[in-house]
Amino acid sequence: MKKIIYLFTISVVYSFFISCELDRLPTDAVTDEQFWKTESDYKLACNAFYVDFPGYTTRDVYSDIAYAGSPDDISSGSYLPTNSFGPWEEAYKKIAIANKVLENADANISGLETAIVARYAGEAYFFRALQYYDLLRSYGGVPIIEKLLDINSEELYASRNTREEVANFILQDLDLAISGLPMPSKLKDTEIGRITKTAALTLKSRVALYEGTRQKYREKGEYRGLLQQAKDAALEVIKSNEHQLYKSTSNDFVANFQECFTYEGEGSKETILANRYQRPWRKNNNSFKLWRSSGCVPTRAIVDAFLCEDGLPIDKSEIFEGYDTPTSEFQKRDPRMNATILIPTVDIFYDGMPYTPTFSNSMSQTGYVWKKTAVKEDAVAMESDLDAIIIRYAETLLNYAEACYELEDKISDDDLNISINVLRERVGMPHLTNAFVQGDNSASVKLNMREEIRRERLVELANEGFRYDDLLRWGIAQDVLPQPLVGIPDLRKYYTKVNANVWKNVKNGFLEVQPTTTRTFEDKHYLWPIPLVQIALNENLEQNPDW
């Protein structure tokens, strides 16, 4: 499918909208009277939203399932308040762009059709909500700015809104976005890649699930309304029939999952929103980053999370083959494991040779390497135009299942069948049912439904940047993050060329890459500190507790 790239039209408009000052726009550019005349003007203005679209993320290194090559400042507890503007300023710059579009959409000086203006206002509402969601996750309550400011605006010195107020504001913006945006099937070929109604609905389910579970487990607050919103938004996407999971033409269970993140699955109906690339205008080197360590490699926490083929965890399954050889732990496991992580001594590395751990600084220090989204040819070329998926239908299904369960502390088999089990069918794994969890399985082993729903989320979304936020909203970061990070089993007899000093860090039969002595998590770490420069500029901003 031919990609439509918007960025060649953006540079002038972006300079028009962006100022070096927080929340303020320049006055020496194209005037509103000269612009905002046609649908093309609104589209061109909204193109500015796509400039800094998210792409491949290493956010999982803050969690337990990835390692950065050295202790990262978040999970090690060494993070300190910064003097830089950082994500705070970047978020408010983008919010200013959205406010500019919305102000002119409200004015509609040329009298364009309401539906046309509402569509581009919908994009602005979506992106404003996305930025406030990023701020909410990082800092909690922040000042809500919903209009353009100038140097004399009192809002420049606004105090923080409450967390609840910000969350409600985000959800209101997303409702407004949903009302104006088109369904994916209504997009013209030249519009593919723009924000749609299902993207806004899934983002709404993500935000409401985050806040709902956080309220349930951290704040002990009124969470039911939020979880109901998460459930309803996800169900609307499911019932729309606009999306479906990718399946390979080879009908292979591993390929069904792996190809979703390669060129074979690019642009499939599973992708709800993606950062789109096309050489020579836009390209990345994500495959090279994945296979050259680049500060994010898998740990044992994700490797051990994958179920065995019988649907049971490795510590409960009779078919788990243990750790005697480099490949034994990969046998008879969920096919997503082979699609997510390279099998040592079997899978071909980007250099054309079977992957063998070397534990050098430029390679994986855990002994594991991500396979998911990695393309050998792109790694060799050190450039790619493979789209980076931002929202995919699998998340929608997972959001629905979790919201259902957390609302009532139970979930019906019918709800499992339209969510979790759709994911499992794609890879040939046994259905998750209440009977199975209660012990009606070959091993007569009882499981915990909440844990299995969370496990499904972990293995399905591994290396997509969700894990750290999940630990925060479930209120278990203080239990999980101080644990040591562990790599491959002690298999030195198979890796005779590896520096012998590596094996000095073996504990309990596994390579320990970061001991618990260098990992910590305190209650204050559930929020990041507001940049000190912002506190200095605005005396009404209150720093997060204990920072």
Chart the SSEs and their pairings.
Elements lengths: L10 H7 L21 H9 L18 E2 L18 H22 L6 H26 L23 H18 L16 H23 L4 H17 L12 H6 L12 E5 L10 H6 L5 E2 L1 H4 L31 H6 L35 H6 L6 E5 H16 L4 H5 L2 H7 L7 H4 L11 H12 L6 H7 L3 H4 L4 E5 L16 E2 L2 E5 L17 H6 L10
Antiparallel strand pairs: 1-3, 2-4, 5-7, 6-7
Structure description:
- A 3-stranded antiparallel beta sheet has the order 5-7-6, with no helix packed on it. Strands 1-3 form a two-stranded antiparallel sheet.
- It has helices at 11-17, 39-47, 86-107, 114-139, 163-180, 197-219, 224-240, 253-258, 286-291, 300-303, 335-340, 376-381, 393-408, 413-417, 420-426, 434-437, 449-460, 467-473, 477-480, 532-537; strands at 66-67, 271-275, 297-298, 388-392, 485-489, 506-507, 510-514.
- Helix 4 runs antiparallel to helix 5 (163-180) and helix 6 packs across helix 18 (467-473).
- With 547 residues, it is mainly alpha-helical.
- The longest helix has 26 residues, at 114-139.
Describe the structure using short key phrases.
single chain, 547 residues, mainly alpha, Serine Threonine Protein Phosphatase 5, Tetratricopeptide repeat, 2 domains, three-stranded antiparallel sheet, 20 helices, 39% helix, globular
